[in-house]
Amino acid sequence: MPLSDDHLAHAIVDGLDGGVIVVDRAGRVVVWNAWIAAATRRPAAECVGQTLPALFPALPARFHSALAESFASGAASLLTHSLHPAVLPLRTRAGLPMVHNTSIRALGPKPHDFCLVQVVDVTASANRERVLRERQNARYHAVVDSAHDAILTLDADGVIQLANPSAARQFGTAPQALVGATLSTLLEEQEAWRAAWDSVRAGTPLTRPVEVTARRPDGAPSHLELTASRWSSDGRFFVTAILRDVSERKAAEAELRGLNLTLERRVAERTADRDRMWRLSTDIMVVGRLDGVVNATNPAWTRILGWEAEHLTGANLLDFVLPTDRPRLREILAALSQETAPQLFALQLRARDGGVRCIEWSAVAADDLLQAVGRDITAEREAEEALRRTEEALRQAQKMEAVGQLTGGIAHDFNNMLTGVIGAVDIMKRRLASGRFDDLDRFLEVASVSAQRAAALTQRLLAFSRRQSLDSRPVHINALVGSLHDLLSRTLGESIALDIACDERVGWGTADANQLESAILNLVINARDAMPNGGRLTVSTRQAVLEAREVAGTPEARPGRYVVIAVTDTGTGMTPDVLSKVFEPFFTTKPVGLGTGLGLSMVYGFARQSEGHVAISSSPGKGTTVELFLPAAEPPGETDADLPAALAEGDGQSVLLVEDDASVRVLVADILAELGYAAIETSDAPGAIVELASGRDIQLMISDVGLPGMNGRELAEVARRHRPDLPILFLTGYAGDTVARSQVLGTHMEMLTKPFAIETLAAKIEEMMAAAAFRAGQR
User: Which residues contact 719 (CB under 8 A, 6 or more apart)?
Assistant: First the structure.
């Protein structure tokens, strides 16, 4: 029965996964949905008409002010759990305090007569955040306390809030004594720190360390490299500063700089000719130590990177290389220290203007010195990147073209099929309305055939996308191919000769027998249509063992043992251009209306989902051969072939039916009743678990795979804990990642794919009931 507008509104509000309260200007509750009733343990009948202060005496002042602001100005407010931990006294289904966010906003135009209060349960996410924060804090303190560098946490005013033990040692005082002081009071030179502080405070990260000077406890100067970063917490920002003592390095660098300057002067005096090449070269030339310290560079360094000579001598190449490339440079320097063979490599270097240049180097070690020549290849790399982006854009355009072709084909075919269904139903409605009942069977047949064509199209799409549900198991390939002889002969007609050539050595392969028959039939139909004037069609089988070298050029193929089914025709053949497109969905060479273009796409998807592949060869005027490779299998063991015949009908046995789609649930329940079974209906896993644990006599469970919340496979695991021998039948329209039956089905489990014929469902139920009765009789 259709719902009235009021009933529909109440149903929608009660169906929301969140609390909904509507109050009027007097503060009285007008709406109190089912979710808030469950969370407060107070039904709507008790709360509607009462005021919120009467229902919740401990409401915080911020809630009242937010409600008043909404009525006065229409302003919306959000009371988060982090600032307002307990706005309302709510409980989860488990009875635990509920962490929640509350929003308040006015309804309708001014003057606002009602306000909406919405409540969202964030208990799970809040608990995860709390646990994660505690773990992060523990790791943070462990790292900070063990660090050799001084680490300080400052607030927005520059006041120290946290100091590690290394900071206390650096400044000669206890960590607690540093808390409350400002970093600027601890430094000798404050100008560099103040500039860095203003930058970090404004949200601009430091691109390189800042050098500052402090005083040691003994009065000696301490040279420090300072890095700082800003972070936020609960609406406030803080700055973490790391100070590294580089006094010893500074002294060593000064000494090395003096030595390097002396060495450079001596080299310059003896190499006047080399100096001319040095100065005029357009490539960067570097002479340095094998640890990367620069002794000298030519002017090309300044022209390309912008750094002057005084910035380079005594510095280390690592200081100019991007962090991502520094490990590579260290490897090169280590290799040059061990051997004199030239090294060719590329590095990204920082330019003085803030840019990055890509330099290709040729380096060699001679006389315990690094001698390197670098060529700027930035423009070449940028051109390569531009080409890569262009190629990516082309691939994206091709992908969108394929999507357009796919959706266009689907829309065309489905619209044709829907026209048959809708048109037939409309005609039947008109005839029933006018009392004309003759010839209704014809229109019923039209609607049924169109619907079956739509179902077949869906299966072909699933096969192409490798998402159909397959019942893969060992299949005797020669026996299956031989059983199709009569069907294939009738399909081909009298003008085409059919040959079946099965290699006697071919045994078992792994496949879904029904889908394999459909794939062979598709190939035979395509071959028939390629021989309009008659010809010869051969279906053959053989064994194949593919080695790794044989499949190297075929990405979808894998090495291993296969059985091969080949369909060869003497038809018109295909050009290389057509051959490259045959597996694309909705691509067809047939006239409009004579083919969907999904036949070979379905075969390709079926083969790939069966862990096999398809090979095709063709030449214009010489025919086509399509080979279907399927994994070889061992003969199956003993089966339940000796089971008695399926029961003709039920005798009141109870069947638990779990289906979230109401129309499917009603249909299956009616089928069960027609067959003489008693259906126990439920729409979700929790309701099914209640029935399974109730002790009721249940002979079979029928469950949808894609249930909301706990899916059908998970429900089956729970069912087996309660009833280990319960047979379970899965119904699926699309099982996502669980389409492989071997991954879904356990002992005494079967699967049917929607849509299904009533007779198919009835036969499967009767078969499983008979098997269960047989097993019970064996015990």
Answer: 688, 692, 701, 726, 728
Tally Cβ neighbours within 10 Å of residue 284. Answer: 23
pTM over 0.85: no
On whether the CB atoms of residues 207 and 351 are closer than 8 A, the answer is: no
Question: What would the two tokens of residue 80 be?
Answer: 């988060």
**Contact status, residue 741 vs residue 713, Cβ threshold 8 Å:** no
- Contact (Cβ atoms closer than 8 angstroms) between residue 679 and residue 669: yes
Lowest mean pLDDT among 39-48, 407-416, 483-492, 689-698: 407-416
3-state helix, strand, coil in the chain (%, to 5): 45, 25, 30
pLDDT (tens digit per residue) in 92-150: 888 888 888 899 999 888 888 899 999 998 888 878 887 787 777 667 666 777 778 88
β-sheet bridge partners, residue 749: 728
Q: Is 297 exposed, middle or buried (0-12, 13-18, 19+ CB in 10 A)?
A: buried
Name, in order, each residue with C-beta under 8 angstroms of 702's C-beta and a sequence gap of 6 or more: 655, 656, 657, 658, 659, 668, 728, 729, 731, 765
C-alpha span between 451 and 446 (Å, rounded): 9
Q: Please give the structure tokens belonging to residue 389.
A: 């982006």
Enter the DSSP assignment of 717.
Answer: H
Average pLDDT, stretch 361-383? 86
Instruction: Determine the 3-state secondary structure of 174 from DSSP.
Output: coil
**Contact of 309 with 297, CB cutoff 8 Å:** yes
Domains of the chain are: 5-127 (3.30.450.20), 147-245 (3.30.450.20), 250-376 (3.30.450.20), 382-464 (1.10.287), 473-633 (3.30.565.10), 654-778 (3.40.50.2300)
Among the listed residues 587, 599, 595, the one whose alpha carbon sits nearest the alpha carbon of residue 404? 587
| pLDDT on residue 589 | 56
Tokens linked to 329: 């440079």
Q: How far is residue 727's CA from residue 710's CA, in Å, rounded to a whole number?
A: 19
Does the pLDDT of residue 462 top 60, yes or no? no
Contact 193, 184 (CB under 8 A): yes
- And the tokens for 182? 């400002």
> Which has the closest alpha carbon to 636: 470, 472, 473, 471?
473
Which of helix, strand or coil describes residue 616?
Answer: strand
Q: Give the pLDDT confidence of 196-209 residue by residue, as tens digits.
A: 888 888 888 887 88
399 pLDDT tier (thresholds 50, 70, 90): low
DSSP class per residue in 304-368 = HH---GGGTTT-BGGGTB-GGGHHHHHHHHHHHHH--S-EEEEEEEE-TTS-EEEEEEEEEEETT
Taking only Cα atoms into account, the Rg of the chain, rounded to an integer number of angstroms, comes to 39
Rounded to an integer, what distance in angstroms lies between the CA atom of residue 590 and that of residue 148? 76
Class of residue 571 by CB neighbours under 10 A (exposed 0-12, middle 13-18, buried 19+): buried
